[in-house]
Design goal:
By secondary structure, the chain is mostly helical. The chain has a domain of about 70 residues. The longest helix is centred in the C-terminal third of the chain and has 22 residues. The radius of gyration is 19 Å and the shape is globular. The two termini are about 20 Å apart.
Amino acid sequence: MTTKYMNPYLAGFFLGLVLLATIFITGRGLGASGGIKSIVVAAVDGVAPAHAEQSQFYSTYVGPGKDNPLKAWLVFELAGVLVGAFVSGLTADRLRIQTESGPRVSPRVRWTFALLGGALFGIGAQYARGCTSGAALSGMAVLSTAGFVAMLAIFGAGYAFAFFARKLWI
């Protein structure tokens, strides 16, 4: 397979430009966990509106006189990320369903670890009040100490966990 990927330094530079433009245009940085939270809140409100209005957490987002959570700008950011990823895969001829894994791991184990890691990271993002893009990248862009601490914690934890998961890949 001779797939070409963008130079990671150039991609990082473009990400910085997108972050700068986002701060300039919207007055806010990037973030994904807030958009997912808005989708979950809208889903709970759609399925059980009485529960959502009585819940201490959900009632801050739904109820009389409050905008629909799906109108949050982060929801539109997530939609743009999904559409952009689809267009990128389509134009680079990489649009196919496949599971990449190391020689010692089955696709089922790979998906189990991916779902478990995603769930843990999502829970952590809610406790930390932000994800990698929101807390770390956007925080660092405005020289927030918390942004630097978040980035060190995220990459430090990933590096530490890689020691235990490395046998799945090498």
